[in-house]
Amino acid sequence: MTTPRDPYGAERGPWDGEEAPIERHPGYDRYPPPNAPTRRRPLPPLDTEGEPGRAPLGPLRKRPVRPDAPPRGVSAPVPDDAAPPADTKRYEIPDETAHPQRVPRKLTVTRVAALRGRELTEKGIATFQRAAKADGADKSGLTALTYATMANFALDAAIAVSLANTLFFASATAESKSKVALYLLITIAPFAVIAPLIGPLLDRLQRGRRLALATSFAVRAVLAVVLILQFDTWALYPLALCMMVGSKSFSVLKSAVTPRVLPPDIDLVRTNSRLTVFGLVGGTIGAGAVAAAVAALTGSAGALVLAALIAAAGTYLSLRIPRWVEVTEGEVPATLSYHGEDEHTEVLRAGERSAVPPRKRRQPLGRAVVTGLWGNGSIRVLTGFLTFYVAFVAKATEHRPLQQAAMLGAVGAAAAVGNFTGNATGARMKLGKPALIVVGCTAACAAVALFAVFADNLLGAAVATLIAAGASALAKVSLDASIQDDLPPESIASGFGRSETVLQLSWVIGGAAGVLLPTDYWKGFAVVSGILVLGLIQTFVSYRGHSLLPGFGGNRPQHAEQEVPAGPRTQGDPLR
Length: 576
Fold this sequence. Notes:
The chain is an all-alpha fold. The protein has helices spanning 109-132, 137-140, 142-167, 173-203, 209-229, 236-257, 268-298, 300-319, 367-396, 401-428, 434-455, 458-486, 492-516, 521-543, and strands spanning 334-335, 345-347, 353-354, 363-364, 563-565, 569-570. The longest helix is centred in the N-terminal third of the chain and has 31 residues, at 173-203.
């Protein structure tokens, strides 16, 4: 895996081993020079005179004194009937210890609590802004993308709360399951057809990626308003489909934009982990809690109003992403399949040049990336399955609503802890062999799914959720590392878009299984365990250089070269 770039020195920004000319970061000019002064003026010289053992002090500032003032410690005699002259100028010494914050005349418990709350809020906002702008993210544009990503997570959480309140919690067990099954039939099934087309369509988008991100929010804002008016009709299902397509389109676009707002001090792996953590904490958890509270007070309509407001804010935040993300000149699209040398395809070796323009070339994914995709896809099937399945099992128990909420809360807490732990671990560990880490994560998920089959209770489901969430986050970080190490710079953005499409489609398949399978723990986990075992076998054989599916496995080089349609080319010229 490549090492982090050096932002300073004679050649700021190159990777180790990179040759000139260097393709610098689009926002490179916004960074300060390496020898930028840290102070506007030099510090005054220190006074070397002083007592031993004490730090020398600078000259003390003298206080203004009246010319006619008596010596210090002596009071001038003042007659009893004497009045101060009218033109006497009064000298007041300012109190330098006064607190800059305005304090009310009368302090009460309420006012003290309000002042303390305001102070803590300001400190929390300042800490959040420092974290969002760390490592030069404010200059590269990563901070703006972080805010837009948080808005997307928050919007998904608000929509999920509003739909769950109507499709799930407001109905009986059989009725809610039929409603959600119908929802999946009308929304998930078309999305399974649309999802593979999102990546290639967005790859053709040469200009206007910021506008496309903003449009994904603006369309969902309008759909949220329409949902408020058509929530109890059949229009709910196609509108929900459009919501899902907009959300997944943002995810694919975000993956393609991220390499272009990368700060010079951190790599893509840590950047994606940072975006995920900010989205989970500030979006899913924070906005999800607010949406749940609003839905409890005002119903699903209130949560949809909140969703519309979040979508409007996301539109504005997307337009604040820097303009240099529009620069796509020279990009070569990535492809999942591998052809090699045949009658229709030629491979561009190192040092060769082709007359085919970059947009007509194809960059096959290497063996490590394909291994990561198979492993991550298998894990996403399990996480999508758990998202719906545990909720329906809790609903089928026919316990009181409080007990059902406790069951869902336990599983949700396990998912949150696992996801956060996986991202934090992946951001700090050295990913020397990311493909091998993916194989291990897939094996752990298959093992915990089998454990849930024999446990046949809520504890087994909670443990499976904890391990699956952590393994999913760690495997995704490893996949990002493989993409960064395998693909050339001109194909990284497209590679991230392709991988995100595969992962979203895998999650959809798992979610459909979670709704359609019986609500007995051992039956549902037995089916998903079989899927995971097959995925583990394909992941392992891909890692070993073989495949159960020709053309979509590991029977390819570790680092594949670009492919072009068969035709004339010039030998000996460097590939541009």
